[in-house]
Write a structure and sequence with these properties.
Elements (H helix, E strand, L loop, with lengths): L5 E4 L5 H12 L3 E5 L13 H12 L3 E5 L6 H15 L4 E4 L14 H29 L2 E6 L2 H4 L6 H21 L4 E9 L13 H11 L3 H12 L10 E5 L2 E4 L17 H12 L9 H4 L6
Parallel strand pairs: 1-2, 1-4, 2-3, 4-5, 5-6, 6-7
Antiparallel strand pairs: 7-8
Helix pairs in contact: 1-8, 3-4, 4-6
Protein name: SDR family oxidoreductase
C-alpha cells in the first residue's frame, strides 16, 4: 500500500512510533526513523532507539535511515525532511508522533512544564509539517498524520498541558487540511489507545486503576499503526481533515465542534434574562465533566 513512498515518523524509537515505522516499511515505504531517545519527561538523549528500529527494518528487507533531530526546533524538523530527500529522493508522508509527558494538577503546574509539552507536541507537529509542506505543494501530493489524544478531545485529570497541546494539534491538522487541499495534500488525526511508554506512567494503585491498566495492555501499538499506514496511502485520497481513534479492534470517527442548540431574543439579552431564560433552555445539552475512561468504559475487544 505504501510502495515507493518516503515517510518521516517522529518518536519512532519505541512504542506506537516504532510500530508505525515497522508497518509502513512492511507496506513498502522508505522510512526516516526519528527519535532523540529522551526520557518520558523529555530529559536526556540517546541515539540508540532510532538506530535500532532502522536496523530492524533493514533486517526485514526494508529501507530506513535513523535521525536524531529534535522536533521542537525548526532546524531539527528541516534536518529530518532533508534526510528523507537525501536518502530516498522525495518525501510523501509525515507522522507526528513524538511526545513527552509532564503531568500534574493545574494549580500546581509550573509554566515550564506547559512550555515543554507544547514545544514537543504542538510546536513539533507544526515544525515537521511546515518543513515538509513546500515539498508536498511542489509535487502535488502528500499526507500528514498527527497524534492527538482523548485527553484533549474529552478530558483527563492532571494533564492540562498535554490536553491543551493535543487539542491544539487537532486545530493545526484542520487548518493544514483546509490550506493545502488544493495541492492534493491531506491532514488527519488519530487519538490512539495502545500500551506504550507514554501511558505506562498511569498510576495503578487501586483495584480499578489496575484493571484499567490491564485493559490498556491488551491494546497493542500495531493496531494503531495499520490505521496510520492506511491514512498515508493513496487509498485514503478522499480522507481529509478527520479525527479518528483506534482502540484495539475498533476504529472510531470523532465528531467535531459544531453548534448544537441556540436561543434567540429579539430585543437582546440582559444579564438576568440570560440567567432566567437562556441558560435553563440550553442546560439540558451541557456536557458533563467526564474523563476519557468515562466515555470508553467497556473492555476492548
Amino acid at each position: 500500500m505504501l510502495k515507493g513512498k518516503s515517510i518521516v515518523v517522529t518518536g519512532a524509537g519505541g512504542g506506537i512510533g516504532r510500530a508505525i515505522a515497522l508497518v509502513a516499511a512492511a507496506e513498502g515505504a522508505c522510512v526516516v526513523v526519528n527519535d532523540i531517545g529522551a526520557a518520558l519527561d523529555g530529559s536526556g538523549s540517546d541515539e540508540g532507539p532510532a538506530h535500532r528500529v532502522a536496523a530492524e527494518i533493514h533486517q526485514a528487507g526494508g529501507q530506513a535511515v535513523a535521525d536524531t533531530s529534535s522536533v521542537s526546533e525548526a532546524d531539527g524538523a528541516e534536518a529530518m525532511v532533508a534526510a528523507a530527500i537525501k536518502a530516498f529522493g522525495r518525501i510523501d508522508g509525515v507522522v507526528n508522533n513524538a511526545g513527552v509527558l509532564r503531568d500534574g494538577f493545574f494549580h500546581k503546574m509550573p509554566a515550564e512544564h506547559l512550555d515543554q509539552v507544547l514545544k514537543v507536541h504542538l510546536y513539533g507537529s507544526f515544525n515537521v509539517s511546515r518543513a515538509a509542506a513546500p515539498h508536498f505543494k511542489e509535487q502535488g501530493s502528500g499526507a500528514f498524520v498527527h497524534m492527538t489524544s482523548t485527553s484533549g478531545l474529552i478530558g483527563n485529570l492532571a494533564q492540562a498541558n498535554y490536553s491543551a497541546a493535543k487539542l491544539g494539534v487537532v486545530g493545526l491538522s484542520k487548518s493544514i487540511a483546509l490550506d493545502m487541499q488544493k495541492f492534493g495534500v491531506r491532514s488527519n488525526c488519530i487519538a490512539p489507545f495502545a500500551w506504550s511508554r507514554m501511558i505506562s506512567s498511569i498510576k495503578a494503585e487501586t483495584d480499578d486503576q489496575k484493571e484499567r491498566v490491564a485493559r490498556l495492555k491488551q491494546m497493542t501499538p500495531d493496531k494503531v499503526a495499520t490505521m496510520v499506514a492506511y491514512l498515508l496511502s493513496d487509498a485514503a485520497r478522499e480522507v481529509n481533515g478527520q479525527i479518528f481513534s483506534v482502540r484495539n479492534n475498533e476504529i472510531f470517527l470523532f465528531s467535531q465542534p459544531r453548534p448544537i442548540r441556540s436561543v434567540h431574543r429579539g430585543e437582546g439579552w440582559t444579564v438576568s434574562d440570560i440567567a432566567e431564560h437562556a441558560i435553563p433552555a440550553l442546560k439540558a445539552d451541557f456536557y458533563p465533566l467526564e474523563v476519557s475512561a468515562d466515555i470508553f468504559s467497556w473492555d476492548p475487544v
